[in-house]
Amino acid sequence: MTAVLESSGLGKRYRQRWALRDCTLSVPSGHVVGLVGPNGAGKTTLLSLAVGLLQPTTGSVEIAGDRPASSSAQLAKVGFVAQDTPTYSGLSVADHLRLGRHMNPGWDAKLAERRISQLGLDPAQKAGKLSGGQRAQLALTLAIAKRPAVLILDEPIASLDPLARREFLQILMEVTAEQELSVVMSSHLVSDLERVCDYMIVLVASRVQVADEVDELLNTHRQVTGPRTDLSALPADWQVISASHTDRQSTMLVCTPVPVTDPAWTADPIGLEDLVLSYMSKAVRPSPDSSPALEAQR
Amino acid sequence: MMWLTWRQFRAQGIVAAALAVALGVVLLITGLNLAHLNSDSGVATCHGARACATAANAFINQLPGTGSVPVFFGTIAVIYLAPALMGIFWGAPLVARELETGTFRLAWNQSVSRARWLVVKLGVVGLAAMATAGLLSLFLGWWESPIFRAAALAGSDSAAVTRISPQLFGAQGIAPIGYAAFAFALGVTAGALIRRTIPAMAVTLAAFGLVQAAWPLWIRSHLITPLREYFAITPANVNELAIINNTQMIVRHDVEKPGAWVVSDQTVSPSGHLFSGPPTHACLSANASPNACNASIAALHLRALISYEPASRFWPLQWTETGIFVVLAMALAAFCAWRIGKRRLA
Amino acid sequence: MIWLTWRQFRAQSIAAGAFVVAFGVVLLVSGIKIAHAYSSAGVPGCHGAGACANAATTFIDQLRGSSTELIYYTGIVIVYLAPALMGMFWGAPLVARELETGTFRLAWNQSVSRTRWVVAKLGLIWLAAMATAGLLSLVTGSWASPIFRAGQLAGSDSVSLDRLAPQLFGAQGIAPIGYAAFAFALGVAAGVFIRHTIPAMAVTLVGFGLVQLAWPSWVRPHLAPQLRQYLPITGANVNELVVENNQFIVRRTIFKPGGWVVSNQTVNPAGRPFGGAPLQACVSGPQSACNAAVNTLHLRTLISYVPARGFWELQWIEAGIFVVLAAALTAFCAWWIRNRQLT
User: Fold this and answer.
1) What is the ipTM of this complex?
2) Which of B99, B105, B149 is CA-nearest to residue B259?
3) Per-residue pLDDT in tens (0 to 9) along chain C, 343 residues
4) What is the pTM for the complete model shown?
5) Under 8 Å between Cβ of A183 and A33
């Protein structure tokens, strides 16, 4: 499977601060990718770099097989919904559709109009007068109707109410199935992503912590409980993500390719949300190589 | 892309068109009246220099009563202001507003490259600005042609009717087109660099104002080297005679060159140096008689050295100046395109 | 609230301050030169009308064509433009920007009532605008005072030195303060009603421009108490004599140094406007015969004028009217903001 988003050593620095560092990804196409991390982790930076709104300070990035925004044809392959779903407040819904039609050769007018009427939006209403949820749906329609190969969404549902969020994700799933899109969606709410994503990237403190298929993640991560043990005494193929100790007991989140057979340890599967939270909550020290850093928590 | 540009420019375009039409109507009504007066006075059909001069003077004397004077100067003011206003209201918000409101994240992710987006927007609105300025200048040109023809026949030298004089030059012919292009490009550049609309508007206004003020003073006279001419100063044609501090004497003859722009007028001694004194004894003494003073001045053999641009240089200067401003505008536009393509904006 | 107003207004006030200082420096340097020329031409200590007129004329002629003349006209333009620019850049965005960007939802939910917010913001910047305009007027006025004094002494008939002339009046004294207050209030009102910054700026500019254009012609003549005077027209002093199409126009142009001649009419001995048939002597014949014939008509010029000493009275009246207009506009805006439902 070809990679829809590929980056190598990607980094972006603003004056003194690194917003993104050492980002090496190879995201296969045909997945719905969730990009999750706390606020300020660098999600918007990564997506802006992927779409071509920013230029990298170090490294390179390719999307849909080509440099971002390198040509009109390349732009047509990428659909983008930015944070706060910007729309022209003075233009009506119909005007926005015309905008899409005039500026995108691959525009699917029927699809756009069908979506708008399904959503119940009034074509003559100015975008500035729509509610937040309606604006997000409008922006999504614009991104979808140009028939891209990959759809990039930057925290699209952050400001939506639960019902609007559910509707948005539902429509997203429908479209993804219909059009065979790859989707990269960022959020800081794991519970929403859990429902729809089958590939997860965790970004904390400007670095990628983990990037893998959700199935794989769930298979290889376990919550193990057992007698109090020093970390150095653990099996070699265990990677400890986080650990907490009492006098007698150790509870750890480990990543291991093989099932846990040692009877001293009780291994439980872990939910995606807990998994991600564990990665997000540990302190990160920069690692010498570019692989994700895994540190124990004492 | 063209549709989007028009849709975003719609309101401003309609306002500008309405104002231009309003001004056009005013000029049409008064201009027809003027043409009527002109033919009545017989300027068009006169024969002979003297008869023509009389008819022309009669026509010109009637002008203040017709209310043409405020219309003339008002239109001149509008034509001078129009490029600045278009730079502020059309140019500065063009990119700055998209950056400020974040809508660039929508606009620059359609299947249109940034370069194309900018080129189409710059091109369409820039051409609209140039066309507006050109149209206003055209209206004025039609309206004022009887006045200038009469002024030429009457041998008038008033700066108010010399097309090439600094006060009028920038509002005539094709010069406003160049200014409009430059002001617009300046506004877009300011918006792209400053990224906020209102500061960009202020900066555009200040920068364009400075250029417009400085240009006629320091640059225009060097575009085409002015001609130089000497005039003898005799007691009969001295316009100004003043003695200052008993050490300096100013003698000036205001040279009249009908239709020309006198860039400088200096009094020089026979050796060619600037003359500023000392006062002659005959003029300085307490019981000076005018004849003695005059005779002493005549004995100095002073001359007035003027450098001037004759009326025939009007169109060469217009083309040169417009060309320079259009080139500047295109350089600014290219800089903008490069700058926006640099992708430093999140 | 005062801190917030200052913080939001900081950039504009610094820009304005820098400009006023820069312009002030230019005027200072030039003013020294003028003072020097003034004293060396002998104007301050002159005795007698004739000598004073000569000295004054010498002084003025020296300045003509130099950078001083340029600064003079630039100063006039700046003092006229300043109120319009302050209305556009300070007034229009004041409320419009908060409405446009939605920050009013932050500002109007602090523990400060809307009324207090409006009063503080409007009041402080209003005062700043008036102060700026007043400062510019003061600085240019004191720079130009030698020139005006010389103009009066020289009995000059150049309109560029008549303080009351419509072209100059609005750039002197306290009138700019009134204009600044009005332009600012107009800008705020435009912002409140239009709710978008850039259209509000455009409307402010156009509205204020129209008022400034119409005012000297249509309103100001009725504000000032005017004097009327009859002056005889003789063949010798007639300035304009036009014979054509059975129309006979006889005019004598009257100058009132430092004053403002509002209207000038030629009347016949009975006091009615003169509209007689052309005199035969003037249609064809030598100039002297025409002059003699005009004398027999016993025509007079009726002028209505504001004397030079009426300058300050008119300034106070005009500034007062504009300040009152501004206050009314502002009060209306404040009431509107307080009561309006805004989401």
Assistant:
1) 0.73
2) B149
3) 777 778 788 888 898 899 999 999 989 988 888 888 888 777 777 777 777 777 787 787 777 767 787 788 888 889 999 999 999 999 999 889 888 887 777 776 666 666 777 778 888 899 999 999 999 999 998 898 888 888 777 765 555 667 888 888 888 889 999 999 999 999 999 999 898 999 999 999 999 999 998 898 888 888 888 888 888 888 778 777 776 666 777 888 887 777 888 888 888 888 788 877 777 777 777 777 788 888 888 888 888 888 888 888 899 999 999 999 999 998 888 888 777 655 4
4) 0.82
5) yes
Residues C302, C270: Cα–Cα separation, whole Å: 12
Tell me which of A14, A78, A88, A126 to substitute to probe the interface with B (most B C-beta atoms closer than 10 Å).
A88
| Residue B106 touches partner A, C-beta closer than 8 Å | yes
How far is the C-alpha of C175 from the C-alpha of C166, rounded, in Å? 12
Q: Which DSSP symbol is given to B274?
A: B
For residues C320 and C177, the answer to whether their CB atoms sit within 8 Å is no
| Tokens representing residue A92 in the block | 């009506």
Say how far apart CA C225 and CA C314 lie, in whole Å: 9
At a CB cut-off of 8 Å and minimum separation 6, what does C245 contact?
B40
First to last CA, chain A: 40
Cβ contact, residue pair B112, A72, below 8 Å: yes
Q: Which sequence spans correspond to the domains of chain C? A: 2-224+309-339, 227-308
Contact C40 B245 (CB under 8 A): yes
Question: Is B4 touching C (CB cutoff 8 A)?
Answer: no
33-62 in chain C: CB under 8 A from chain B? 37, 40-41, 57-58, 61-62
